[in-house]
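Today's session is about reading a structure prediction critically. Students often jump straight to the picture, but the first step is always the sequence itself: look for stretches that repeat, for charged clusters, for runs of hydrophobic residues. Only then move on to the predicted structure, which in these notes is written as discrete structure tokens rather than atom positions. Here is the chain we will use throughout the hour.
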Amino acid sequence: MKITVDFEECLKDSPRFRATIEEVEGDVCELESKLDKLVKLCIGMIDAGKAYNAANKQFVNGIRELAQQSTKDEVIESSLTKFAESLQEMINYHTILFDQAQRSIKTQLQTFVKDDLRKFKEAKKQFDKVTEDKEAALIKNAQAPRNKQHEVEEATNILTATRKCFRHIVLDYVLQINVLQSKRRSEILKSMLSFMYAHLTFFHQGYDLFSELQPLMKQLGGQLDQLVVDAAKEKRDMELRHSTIQQKDFSNDDSKLEYNVDADNGIAMEGYLFKRASNAFKTWNRRWFSIQNNQLVYQKKFKDNPTVVVEDLRLCTVKHCEDIERRFCFEVVSPTKSCMMQADSEKLRQAWIKAVQNSIATAFRDKGDDSGKLDRKSSTSTGSLDSSGEPKERSLKGESALQKVLAIPGNACCCDCGQPDPRWASINLGITLCIQCSGIHRSLGVHFSKVRSLTLDTWEPELLKLMCELGNGVINQIYEARREELGARKPQPGDPRQEVEAYIKAKYVHRRFVRRPSDEELQNKVVTLSKQEKRLSSSSTEHLPPRPPPPTPKLRPGSNVSGQSGHGLEARRDSLFCPDELDSLFSYFDTSSKLRSIKSADSGIQNSADGSREMLATTPSSNNATESPPMPATLPPPSPYKEVVFYEPKEYSSGLQLYWASCARSLPDMAEALAHGAEVNWVNTEDDKRTPLIMAVHGGSLVTCEFLLQNAANVNQQDAQGRGPLHHATMLGHTGQVCLFLKRGANQNAVDIDEKTPLTIAVEAANADIVTLLRLAKMNEEMREAEGPYSQSGQYNTNSPTEMQYRKCMQEFISLQLDETE
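Below is the predicted structure for this chain, in token form.
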């Protein structure tokens, strides 16, 4: 420790000591003023910070109120709520920072000034006093006369006592000075370092907070760009509509009322009318009337429940009323009561009278048609494709999907935390989740987990089947195999989100609990799956859809179809479409001048523009399914398919396990291979560069293909022969898989090394269903170009009638194969 003032020097009381003391005293005085100023500035900063926090809290409350007001906009509400929570956390961090500033700067430095500097001042007072006493004693001793011995002795004694006292006090004073000079450094550095660490903690907490918020902000940023484009488009549309409407003639508002029995909202006509009350005063009130569901109703406010005037329009009549003072009145009379109403003009009165009369006629016609409707439910394709019939509902939503998925063992609780009654699912993992875990899964990204609601979303049959094939029990056996061995604690319901999120990331992202198989175990697994595929191939006849009997094509064992047996044609018709349905279907798409019509005959269909449907003329219809089907004039060439044979690979890997598990239709083994790091688009270079998705086509399972597609399999990846999954599904006659691949964006124009497209292969094989589907897909693409329903963003309008009809057709075939082959 550095000594500011020397103790030996202070006893001499030399000029050097006095100069040092004077310098120290001036420094301490200046230090006191600087510290007082710093404390006052700190107090001002803390007060300003508290005012800032108070204003910031009001701002955050304003954000929350805005979020509550935006409950109808889920994106705005959730985003603002999340932002408000984050800003509130920052306010809390600011509060902690200001509290730390008060403790480290204000309190600590004030204590140093009040205690240590006060002791220094008291010691200085004693030193000054004893210095004066010493000076007086020295003067008195010097002035004592030589001849007065008693005065000399007295002066000598006083000087001795004063010097002794001076030595004690000056030593204490020097000690106080040295201690103060040493302590000032530690106190100042201690307080400032504490304050800076408080800032470090503050900014670290803010960084961590906004790091968690950054993915949401990036997502909203992407959505914002699209919202800006949409807003600009809507603005232009509104301006155009405003200009168009402004140019209309509004001198007569009566023209705005029209009767429309086919209105989307079921309201045939609506508008304001005066209604005479049934009370004694016969008052007239203006009400909003409408004709809907064969009833005449009115309401005062939009939120009010409509009041029914006439429950069944078939039981009432309408007539003019000219015997009252008011103009433009008419009366609707039912067996139990009558209602007097008044329009605003004669034209409006006539419009309402005509609307009521038309509604009466429509009600009688609809009632009469109910008994005369033809039952078309016997034809599967009619139910799904004919726009005039009732569509067969294949997709499940709400409680139906929920009940089916939760019935799987282990699915009644959340896969990750055990929360009962989950309402969410990960469709690529095949597990059920609670709402908290679903949010964490969604934050992982779709390459790890694709989250869907079990109650709010619509579930396609293939997705529902996939969920039922896996489940929480199967997946946890894979992803939590080593959890107990590693001593990892599984989260419980109610645990903090941070703990649950850390566990889920360790489980699915880092896969820390997955048990890696040994080389021997992997080899046994692959060999077992290959043997299982052989067993499936030997019995695949009953799993594949029937096809017309080919001459003698050399197909692989798994491609044998029921059309080769005598009883196959008796089980069901060869084509899912009968001629009259094809006529309706193709005429539906024939709305563009670019497309030439395709007509169906009694037992066949004429050629299209490119002649690719000429082979359909040889396929039987459902009307003569029991007769012998006519054979094509020329036999199709033998299939180039070769049998899938297991061979001893050079190296066993998780990709090879996925390869054979896909062919063996074993979804648990496929999920295990993916958990072990298998590449979903793994290429078997020793087997024509085939992929797991192509082997899933060989296995004949549509759900296996769906599982691979949900896990980012490439639907257009080709083998060494240039054939993609769509080529293989066409060659095998797997209609449902063809639909699935078309639905997932497969390129039907891709050619193999023989320059053959899937449509060419289907025509050569005389497979009517697949040819029909491929032609529908091709015509749907042509319709997109012809109708031009593209938005400025370049995305196709999936709600157009053509697209909806096409997708309905695709989904029906997928559902049929699920019903018949899985």
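Discussion point for the tutorial: Residues 261-367 form a domain with the PH-domain like fold (CATH 2.30.29.30).
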